[in-house]
Amino acid sequence: MVGRKSLDALIRLYALQSMLLALLAFVLAEGEQHFVLAGMALLLLKGVLIPRYLFWLLERLGVSHEVESYLSIPLSLLLGGVLVGVGFRVGSAFVLEGARLPEAVPVALSLILLGMLSMVSRKKAVTQVLGFLALENGVFLLALAETHGLPLFIELGVALDAFAAVVLAGVLISRIRAIFDHIDTARMRDLKG
Question: What per-residue string of b and e applies to 102-135 under the rule 16 or more CB within 10 Å gives b?
Answer without folding.
Answer: bebbbbbbbbbbbbbbbbebbbbbbbbbbbbbbb
